[in-house]
Amino acid sequence: MPTAIEIFKLLPKKNCGKCNYPTCLAFAMQIANSKAKLQDCPFLSEEALAVLAASAAPPIRLVKFGSGNKVIEMGDETELYRHEKRFFHPTAYALTVSDALDDSAIAQKVERIANIKFERVGQELRFDAIAVKNDSSDAKRFKEAAEAVAAKTDLPIVLVSRSPESMKAAAGAISIRRPLLFGANATNHVQMAAVAKDLNCPLVVSEGKGLDALANLVQLVKSSGIEDIVLDFEAGSMKQLLERSSIVRKVSVKKTFRGLGYPILVDAGSGEPAILKGLLATMKYGSIVLFDELSEARAHPLFVLRQNIYTDPQVPIQVKPGVYPVNAPNESSAVLFTTNFSLTYFTVLSDIEKSKVPIWLLVVDTEGLSVMTAFSAGKLTPESVNACLEASGVKEKSKSGEIIIPGMVSRMSGKLAEATGLKVIVGPKESSGIPKFLKSR
After folding, report:
1. Which of 196, 356, 402, 426 is surrounded by the fewest CB atoms within 10 Å?
2. Are residues 332 and 273 in the same domain?
3. pLDDT tens across 216-270, in order?
4. Could you tell me the pTM of the whole model?
């Protein structure tokens, strides 16, 4: 992003106020801070708009593939470190299907990939794409395999082949799905770029001889009219992968070097090295990782790592406030409340379910803060709990006249009883004590 002075030099300097700011300098400062848009100025010339738009573009290009509501977005990142703001597009994981398999085996593997999913703190964790690999070296078979996969899943597809002929056949057959084409290198980039351009598909550019060679190859591909590019380092070791990923991100974000300002693909392969490459790619700027094979046991911790890294550190994961029935409660069942911090909610929910005691679980909006943090910050008060009680309508569902509160906020029991008119029962301080506490009642 250019500085306010650099932006100001390209503005018409009319100080007309039509941009909703008193002066052009004030407008330039707002643009530099991403609080205004260039289009807000009605007198900005086409030339100035083009110059400023190019300089204000994200340092890493946004590349999309897939179709409908199954589109993977990669790139468009602006930070070197997560704590500076956040990372925007989580690393996508794809499992590979070989065209050497028959159609029945392909269908079985696609179904297995679709069934590998986990739920954690209210989010579903699963594979994001399927890669079809041209192991047969046969254009016709590659096309048939791509069509078979496309017919069995709506997940985005990556086509993997070094043969322009095979790539053209397979990509042309499923072009409506806008697949990611993984196959351009120093020997075939002209033909591969032609295929990508004709079908309007993003293209992976591979070069293992170093970043200078990769940047030169990217420039050649770009000069042929391809803008949506993904980088493949062909890293021979973990050390190379770490070094090249870090350098590319640093020169793109800090130096705004457009020559390598693209998402990164990591072809992890199989076995133990694949897991390590997947971990490293997730932690160090990988946009998409291809695995030949990955069991559920190995996929789960990898998915959780990705979820933790790509959660906005400034916005906790939250659950929708309201009342949730647990263990089929009725009118005689008590109300128990907790906060809408997802980790707290799912922990409490799990412990209530273990007790098998019917409960109305009231989730109070605390802006995603845990019980003690919300209480200390004034986000969890007798008034906010009462407001949630009234808004949820739980008093009509529960006639027990009781509300169970977390033991950590026992000091609010008196005021809460006055505000709600309910009998307040102080529960355990830790969620793990909920099953024994509810059963004892």
Report:
1. 356
2. no
3. 999 999 999 999 999 999 998 999 999 999 999 999 988 888 899 999 999 999 8
4. 0.79
